[in-house]
Design brief:
This is Inosine guanosine and xanthosine phosphorylase family protein. This protein is α/β, with parallel strands linked by helices. About 30% of the residues lie in helices and about 25% in strands. The strands form two sheets. A five-stranded mixed β-barrel has the order 4-7-6-5-8. A three-stranded antiparallel beta sheet has the order 1-2-3. The structure holds adenine (ADE).
Length: about 260
């Protein structure tokens, strides 16, 4: 970004502060590929204890500043072996259990008389922006498998999924899972912004093929048989940050290329 002006969230009335390790709390204004942009360096999530209205406040502010297109990047876990770590998934749909069951940023009176009471999300993810993402990847010479398309499943966090929850999210049609983004997408659509979401797969969700029964293990012990004790892998935030760091350059180039292509659209 060129000609950068940074403003601390703490200097902005109504803004929350990001508490997640690796996230700053800075709003950066500047130019990318000559296009005026505003970037959030650090996100706000409900799992930090922020209210939904605080989480989406920056989106509403950006809409009022005249932003028309919003690109959200996030870290996500893959629910499919066909989507390996390091893949950037261009999100085309979502499944958000918290939205369906009462954690929705639009609960309450409409923001203003110009806002719809019932906001459709059937085409929440802009097709022109998704096309722009794949065109940009091609123009950058990224490998064909560097980008995939998929459905984001939103969980509130801050716990990672259990194996059974991972299997559930996959079986209902999720491709990746994460703890962010969806409140912002909803507010952006409420404000009429075009939305693109790019999820970087930082880890595979732990979904063992089968459950190793402890009863069988004890029975084998009693029968004097030796049996391998399976260890259950876990996801860590350090792993998520490390992959994010490795792929930061690719993500940065991709986002810049997409932004550059918007100025010619
Ligand atoms: N972010 C990165 N990996 C995740 C996972 N497995 N679940 C939820 N959010 C994530």
């Amino acid at each position: 970004m060129r000609e950068v002006v940074e403003v601390q969230y703490s200097a902005l009335k109504g803004f929350g502060t990001s508490t997640v390790p690796g996230h700053k709390s800075v709003l950066a204004f500047g130019l990318i590929e000559g296009v005026p942009v505003v970037a959030m360096l650090g996100r706000l999530h409900p799992y930090e204890g922020h209210s939904m209205s605080t989480v989406v406040y920056p989106i509403r502010l950006m809409a009022h500043l005249g932003v028309k297109d919003m690109i959200i990047t996030n870290a996500a876990g893959s629910l499919r072996p066909t989507i390996p770590v390091g893949t950037i998934v261009v999100i085309h749909d979502h499944i958000a259990l918290p939205l369906l069951t009462g954690l929705n940023p639009l609960l309450g009176p409409p923001t203003s008389p110009d806002h719809a009471r019932f906001v459709p999300l059937s085409s929440a993810y802009s097709r022109p922006l998704r096309l722009a993402a794949f065109r940009a990847a091609h123009a950058l010479g990224l490998e064909k498998d560097a980008l995939a398309e998929g459905t984001y499943t939103w969980v509130s966090g801050p716990t990672y999924e259990t194996p059974a929850e991972g299997r559930f999210l996959r079986s209902v049609g999720g491709d990746v899972v994460g703890m962010s983004t969806i409140p912002e997408v909803v507010a952006a659509r409420d404000e009429g912004l075009n939305v693109l979401v790019l999820s970087l797969v930082t880890n595979l969700v732990v979904i063992p093929d089968s459950y190793r029964s402890v009863r069988e293990e004890v029975e084998a012990e009693i029968a004097g048989l030796s049996i391998a004790r399976p260890s259950t892998p876990t996801v860590t935030h350090e792993e998520v940050l490390a992959v994010g760091k490795q792929k930061a350059e690719v993500m940065k180039n991709l986002v810049a290329k997409i932004i550059g292509s918007l100025s010619n659209a």
